[in-house]
Amino acid sequence: MTVTDDRTSVLPTHLVVGDARLDSASGGTYEHVNPATGKAQATIPMAGTAEIDAAVAAAREALPAWRAWNPVDRRRVLVRFAELIREHVDELATIASLEMGGPRAYTPFSVHYGADWIEEAAGWADRLAGDTVPLTGRGVFEYTAIEPVGVVAGLATWNGSTGAYGMTIGAPLAAGCTVVAKPSELAPFGAIRTTELALEAGLPPGVLNVVTAGVDASSHLVAHPGIDKITFTGSPATARRIAAAAAERLTPCVFELGGKSASLVFADADLDRAVSSALTLTANAGQVCTLGSRLLVHRSVHDEFVERLTTALAGVRQGDPFTEGVSMGPVINQAAVDRIVGMIDRSRAYGTVRAGGQRAAGELAEGYFVDPTVVELPDNTVELAREEVFGPVVGVQTFEDEDEAVALANDSDYGLAGYVFTADVGRALRVAGALDTGNVGVNGGGAPAGPHIGFGGRKQSGYGLQGGLGGVREFVAAKTVQVLL
Predict the structure, then answer these.
(1) What is the DSSP letter of 348?
(2) Residue numbers annotated as active site
(3) Counting beta carbons within 10 angstroms of the beta carbon of residue 424, is it exposed (0 to 12), middle (13 to 18) or buried (19 or more)?
(4) Is there a smaller number of Cβ atoms within 10 Å at the N or the C end of the chain?
(5) What is the DSSP string of 469-480?
(6) How far apart are the C-alpha atoms of 477 and 374, rounded to whole Å?
(7) Which tens digits make up the pLDDT trace of 6-28?
(8) What pLDDT, in 10s, does the model give residues 402-452?
(9) Coil, strand or helix at 350
(10) pTM (2 decimals)?
(11) CB-CB contact of 154 with 139 (8 Å)
(12) Is residue 62 classed as helix, strand or coil in its secondary structure?
């Protein structure tokens, strides 16, 4: 494999608290491993409770001035922040490939995606407005004022680097909140470098702070009395722990969690489109919360669909993220390999593995590569039909009619996304309306659609909105004022 260690000089290894750069912290250190090579590539400091307290204090100190900024100026500085991210796309894409293993052909998209989230949110900064009530006969004037909720703890997921970070911080900053961001230690470098660009763009020190932290310090952050709201992207298991800690102070939360999304392929579907969509199991090595990992295929086209999909997967090239032609990278770490391969191995007792099914061998063996895998499933009760894999694995089931397809799709603890493939517009709209999910893509449409429109999950996939005006409004509060004239 190509050696990627010579690029590690771009990895920033410090925390940003106010205007300080912390090269060490009381929580110890974390040795980051490149998932493509399985080798350590950088050591980062881990915040303890002292650094969490300092970051929250910096955010609280910066809050009064930031919320008092002219919203037009806040929009302008955030737009400049997004522009700087785009100007550093090569650097940030390299960081993303090093820290999470995404192919270099893909990671620039993730960087632009993060900039899009910040820029879209910025556009609402000076357009947040309340309501007025017409004067009553007794001379009363009433209105609502829109105000930032305060200091936000933003816990970003690891599987998007700058893209995931932009999704986490853009809306609260546009709303006039200050942020203590905690990226995962599995992919912290994009968030750190992006925070430096925020300061360069003109965000005052303390408005955006970034700390890496382990479980104890992270728990201290979400339970901190100086935190006014929490936004978290990750697993339902972690969200439950955050919600329990937040409940002590009734701190509100926004959760964008996992999924077990169904992709419904009807007999009249454009199979080229359906197969192309199914190939997203190779995007980010299947580590995508909206992945259509349950393929529900009409019995009449099942065999042809599976044949086309397995043939297409045979042409997917895994390898070093910086090698030209590589379209699929590794999963994030050894624990992920063990979990994913374990689920595949258990599936052999109830299903049929039609493609993949193992950890990649040969020159890829030292990295955390898992072959893209297709498993035919007998029904909707087995593990691969119920549990999120968060890896390059999809299960295929058959159905006979529309009602059965919808019933199978909705028979899940998750409700993040769903996908529908059909040439019948009426059926597409019926099924989209019947799916118990927060997001639906039709005939290749993505879910979520992007930062310009609000989206969120149902059931175990979370609550609250991200994207568009709805996502920014998650971080404001309305104050009602009544004036007697």
Answers:
(1) T
(2) 182, 256, 289, 388
(3) middle
(4) C
(5) HHHHHTTEEEEE
(6) 46
(7) 799 999 999 999 999 999 999 99
(8) 999 999 999 999 999 999 999 999 999 999 999 999 999 999 877 766 799
(9) coil
(10) 0.96
(11) no
(12) helix
